[in-house]
Write a structure and sequence with these properties.
The complex is a heterodimer. By secondary structure, chain A is mainly α. Chain A is built from nine helices and no strands. Chain A has one domain. In chain A, helix 1 crosses helix 6, helix 4 runs antiparallel to helix 9 and helix 6 packs across helix 8. The longest helix of chain A is centred in the middle third of the chain and has 39 residues. The N and C termini of chain A lie far apart (about 45 Å). Chain B is an alpha/beta fold. Chain B is globular and about 50 Å long. Classes of the chains: A mainly alpha, B alpha/beta. The interface between A and B is medium-sized, with 19 and 26 residues. Bound molecules: adenosine-5'-triphosphate and magnesium ion (MG). The site of adenosine-5'-triphosphate has 11 residues of chain B, from helix 1.
Chain lengths: ~260, ~260
């Protein structure tokens, strides 16, 4: 009996801490955006973050999209051939990539890279009193550190996802034209004919939401860090876990509630 | 004369363990006050409360008569704009070059006026005895003593009226410590700032202090002039003074009170 209760309690603890985290993160986001409404604005920091999150994430996001698009096309071919529906391959691949895999995979990859980096940087600043120093040097950490990261991530992710979508479709294209005897023209016209504006819109909205979430998770856990190097390590891990779970949850909510019809 | 910074009954505890238990302290205009006390008595905590970095549980901090405990963010920002702080650990921004660290308060962290700010930073670095080459290094590339001096340059660059120095000369050689002490005194004498310095170095105390306050068991247990330090009439202060070897700075041998 007791081991069972312990197990259930352990499972229940996750959602509870997550819920508490979400509440605190919402407050944090509101504060950061509220403060960022007034100058001083930190344009250089904002551009720097866009470069760090966007440009430097391109290789890993691109590769992920390429591999997944290729594998997806192969699987759809296998599944489709059971219904004699191989010709739907381009349409299903592009919808799968654009609506789901592009934003989710890019979101998770960038969360792995950047939520951790943000958390580690802010946590280090916290435990070495650099955050305190900022405040004594007439600078608001919300404006200087948080706002540029939140805004940069929110704007960068849609750009990355747009690229990921194209590369993902390219991955499917390569498999279909080299292994599955599709002609290039047939594949591309099949892709273009069934892709709707709604698909692209949902893709980019998801991307923006995921970007905001991953930056917020990084900032939140970074600011809460305490206790030296070990505290920085914990903050980094927590940021990535929180970002992953919240991105997948937000994906579900957006998919079902907003674009479910 | 009312104090520029008036602290009354300041209390702060961590996890129910009191660190400050009713601190009373005055910092006057154009005064150099030194706070001494054993390690872990809450000297750094006191200064962080005065800057609003820690929120005290009770008591009062008045800056030119204006209450800061429980004040809103804008009041605190205005108050902090008049203050400068040298952190015990330096707390330099390791993502920025030394010169951007030094001029940080002048631009509120914005990367503007590059040429003018860089020139200003080099001048400020010279005041703490650092070469211009240091300006382009990262804090991680400096020795501990150099980091401390950069942090000091950063704290005073914007010429704040109220300065807090948390162990400014720890880790410096005696010649440099002497120079830093003179720089601190210069802020007070020439620029009219008020300085609160925390130090364990009795030589420094004698060089820079107008008044000395001793913190023990969460309270200021003794205040007096430097001259009174030699006959303080308080056993803790006496222990603090006697624990150090008598140096050439001592005007007279230490006496039992
Ligand atoms: N953020 C904190 N959380 C919990 N306890 C703290 C915190 N900051 C300080 N303390 C505790 O408060 C006490 C006073 O610390 P403080 O750093 O003010 O000492 P200090 O007088 O500056 O000592 P030193 O001369 O060694 O620098 C210590 O016992 C410390 O453990
Ligand atoms: Mg201290």
């Amino acid at each position: 009996m007791t081991p069972l209760v312990t197990l259930l309690a352990a499972i229940g603890r996750g959602p509870l801490t997550l819920l508490a985290d979400v509440g605190r993160m919402a407050t944090l986001a509101a504060t950061a955006l509220g403060r960022a409404a007034r100058p001083p604005w930190y344009l250089v920091q904002f551009l720097e973050q866009m470069l760090l999150m966007g440009w430097l994430s391109l290789p890993v996001v691109g590769l992920t999209a390429l591999f997944t698009g290729a594998a997806l096309a192969q699987q759809i071919w296998v599944g489709g051939s059971r219904f004699n529906a191989e010709s739907t391959l381009p349409a299903i691949t592009v919808i799968g990539i654009v609506r789901e895999l592009g934003p989710v995979l890019a979101g998770l990859m960038v969360a792995g890279r950047c939520a951790s980096a943000i958390a580690a940087e802010i946590a280090t600043m916290k435990v070495t009193e650099q955050l305190d120093a900022l405040v004594t040097l007439r600078t608001d950490p919300y404006r200087y550190l948080l706002a540029p990261r939140l805004l940069a991530a929110t704007l960068t992710l849609p750009l990355l996802v747009a690229v990921a979508n194209v590369i993902g479709v390219l991955g499917g294209f390569l498999v279909a034209t080299t292994r599955l005897d599709f002609s290039a023209a047939a594949y591309l016209s099949g892709t273009a004919r069934y892709l709707e504006w709604e698909d692209v819109r949902s893709s980019l909205i998801k991307a923006a939401v995921f970007g905001f979430i991953l930056a917020l998770a990084g900032c939140h856990h970074g600011l809460r860090a305490s206790g030296g190097a070990a505290g920085v390590g914990r903050a980094t891990t927590d940021a990535v876990v929180t970002a992953f779970v919240l991105i997948l949850l937000a994906n579900l909510v957006i998919t079902v509630a907003v674009f479910g019809r | 004369m009312t104090a520029r910074l008036q602290v009354r009954g300041l209390r702060k505890s961590f996890a129910g363990r009191p660190v400050l238990a009713g601190v009373d302290l005055d910092l006057h205009a154009r005064e150099s006050l030194v706070v001494i006390g054993a390690s872990g008595t809450g000297k750094s905590v006191l200064v962080k409360c005065l800057l609003g970095l820690l929120v005290p549980e009770g008591g009062s901090i008045r800056l030119d008569g204006q209450e800061l405990v429980g004040a809103d963010r804008r009041t605190w920002e205005a108050a902090r704009a008049r203050m400068g702080m040298l952190f015990q650990g330096g707390a330099l921004f390791d993502s920025l070059p030394v010169w951007r660290n030094v001029t940080f308060a002048l631009t509120a962290g914005r990367r503007i006026e590059t040429r003018a700010m860089r020139a200003r930073a080099i001048a400020e670095l010279a005041r703490v005895g650092l070469e211009p080459q240091v300006a382009d290094l990262r804090p991680a590339e400096l020795s501990g003593g150099m980091q401390k001096r950069v942090a000091l340059a950063r704290a005073i660059a914007a010429r704040p009226e109220i300065l807090f120095f948390d162990e400014p000369t720890t880790g410096l050689d005696p010649i440099l410590a002497d120079a830093i002490d003179r720089l601190i005194l210069d802020q007070v004498r020439a620029l009219g700032a008020s300085a609160l310095t925390i130090t364990h170095d009795l030589d420094s105390v004698r060089r820079i202090a107008d008044r000395v306050a001793m913190l023990a068991e969460g309270r200021v247990v003794w205040t007096g002039t430097v001259a009174a330090l030699d006959a303080p009439g308080h056993s803790l202060v006496e222990q603090f003074v006697r624990a150090r070897p008598v140096t050439r700075h001592d005007p007279s041998p230490v006496q039992r009170g």
